[in-house]
Write a structure and sequence with these properties.
single chain; 135 residues; alpha+beta; 3-stranded antiparallel sheet; 58% helix; elongated; plasmid
Length: 135
């Protein structure tokens, strides 16, 4: 979308899960004191993909509230949930170190991700589902 098309749309600026501000395109440029191209970058799918790949949870994302279809924020949330589910499923049969290495994430994150997906620790999950311990 061009700057001219975005001018009449309302945008919302998020840092992580927290909404910082909202307004029209020109108001956002003034509030953030950045160039219009920077605002467009924060709205792009490429920027969101980069945040996902680098595991940045508190990055700045700008969402077009008036846009039709799925917003960039919804896409990011869906991708993150899918990735976390994949990590948790792999962790069921593998050790924390193996999982951390395969998905290129911090060892401490693995158990947190598992708990976020399944609502309990790996030990409790294995016990509830009568699965032999792995790793």
């Amino acid at each position: 979308m061009s700057v001219a098309e975005l001018e009449n749309h309302y945008l919302c600026v998020y840092k992580g899960e927290k909404a910082l501000t909202f307004g029209t395109f020109s108001e956002i440029v003034d509030k953030l004191q950045v160039k219009p191209s920077t605002v467009e970058w924060y709205m792009s799918n490429a920027h969101i993909k980069r945040l996902d790949e680098q595991h940045v949870t508190n990055g700045i994302v700008i969402v077009d509230i008036d846009a039709d279809g799925e917003s960039a924020r919804e896409i990011r949330t869906r991708r993150t949930r899918a990735k976390y589910k994949c990590i948790a499923n792999y962790y069921i049969r593998h050790s924390m170190d193996e999982t951390s290495f395969k998905f290129d994430c911090n060892v401490k994150q693995v158990s947190e991700i598992f708990k976020a997906v399944y609502g309990c620790s790996k030990r409790d999950y294995l016990k509830l589902n009568n699965i032999k311990k792995a790793g």
